């Protein structure tokens, strides 16, 4: 994702309340071990087995299943279990579940939905710095992207004259004649306002010439 590197939580929850009997303890150990080894598909299966074999359900195990699916690149399955864990009475667990859902939406480029998840994570636990980082980075990126889109919409459509002058400047750039290329574009802009469609190109030429002059 190019807007920011969202943080994927990697801890596995193993509450003390899971210790019911020796068989359950053994199943918990198996699930934890497969996760620790990076065998995430197996980890999901092992955690699901705890539910099926012992009729044992909890928000923590839902989170672990979601995390296992997430790491095994099964985002839809992961989201199902993150959503289940997000309604947990434990606000910290709920917060991290919302955060992980935001990560999935972000990877899908569903940015509004991702931002909403990160916001929910912070509402549940204002001290969740992982969610805060993700929320702030995504919010800033979305604002900058909106500004870029507005700028692009306001750019004029270049005329044929503007296109010819841009092509002429491109040929000069290929010859490393950056000053001449800039002069062509500046003179063309005085004659035709649609040359402003190449504003970024002109600014790049200005920066290159400033660097060359300093050297």
Describe this protein's structure.
The chain is mainly alpha-helical and 215 residues long. It folds into two domains: 16-152, Alpha Horseshoe (Serine Threonine Protein Phosphatase 5, Tetratricopeptide repeat), CATH 1.25.40; 160-214, no CATH class. The chain has ten helices and no strands. It has helices at 22-36, 40-54, 59-71, 75-85, 91-107, 111-124, 129-154, 160-174, 178-191, 199-214. The longest helix has 26 residues, at 129-154. The protein starts with 21 loop residues before the first helix and ends with a helix. The model is unreliable at 1-5 (pLDDT under 50).
**Under CATH, the topology of the largest domain is which?**
Serine Threonine Protein Phosphatase 5, Tetratricopeptide repeat
Q: Report the CATH superfamily of the largest domain.
A: Tetratricopeptide repeat domain
Classify the helix fraction into a percent range. over 70%
Approximate shape: elongated
Write the layout of secondary structure elements.
Layout: H1 22-36, H2 40-54, H3 59-71, H4 75-85, H5 91-107, H6 111-124, H7 129-154, H8 160-174, H9 178-191, H10 199-214
Helix pairs in contact: 1-2, 2-3, 3-4, 3-5, 4-5, 5-6, 6-7, 8-9, 9-10
